[in-house]
Design goal:
By secondary structure, the protein is of the alpha+beta class. It is built from 3 helices and 5 strands, in the order βββααββα. The protein has one domain.
Length: 84
């Protein structure tokens, strides 16, 4: 996974791009606490916070993909080897 710092708030996440349609984002801290967009756009649905994504972080990731700084993951599954 690649370390990415949001261009807007500076929050750091880990990112891995598996395909054009699949990007995995691992938050390193509580998103509601460290992401201003999450905190601002939170709405309550059945007592739970619902924010599908941070658009500013997504734009940062998209910019890094377009510039070639994040590429498709070279991982292959299943992991080569044998099971015991």
């Amino acid at each position: 996974m690649d370390s990415v710092r949001c261009n807007t708030c500076g929050n750091r996440v880990l990112v891995e791009k598996y395909s054009e349609a699949h990007t995995s984002i691992q938050w390193l801290d509580d998103a509601d606490r460290v992401c201003p967009e999450f905190a601002r756009s939170r709405t309550t649905r059945d007592g739970r916070a619902w924010v599908p994504t941070c658009h500013k972080l997504q734009q940062t990731i998209d910019d890094l993909i377009v510039s070639g700084q994040i590429g498709l993951s070279l991982r292959s599954y299943p992991v080569p080897g044998r099971l015991e």
